[in-house]
Amino acid sequence: MTSELFDKGMKIRTEVLGEAYVKKAQAGMDEFNRPLQELVTEYCWGAVWGREGLKRSERSMINLAMISILNRPHELKAHIRGAITNGVSREQIREVLLQVAVYGGVPAAVDSFRIARETFAEIDGRS
Fold this sequence. Notes:
The protein is an all-alpha fold. The chain has two domains: 53 residues, no CATH class; 74 residues, AhpD-like (Up-down Bundle). The chain is 77% helix and 0% strand. The chain has seven helices and no strands. The chain is globular and about 40 Å long. The termini are far apart. The model has no long low-confidence stretch (mean pLDDT 95). Helix 6 packs antiparallel against helix 7.
């Protein structure tokens, strides 16, 4: 697929999640999941992340809260890394996850804190 929105989405997705993450997602594409990858790239990353109404750091914090509450650990790990790339501090990530505890439930926050600590350790080379 190639469109202006797709290209914009691919650029933003790569900037936020990193080239290695995006290449891995692309390498895993087949005829079955290709439409989903195209949809995610064009609409999530191009149409929504490409808007100017929020800073990338703000979008990242919103995503962390929603993904935590939805209990999507794989996506949470990727978006924690993306949040750091977008300038969100570890302290801000902690505050988002505390907010999750109150509004989304303590079990979601406990898992999210664990995943955040694992991700920080990987980033710091302590995994």
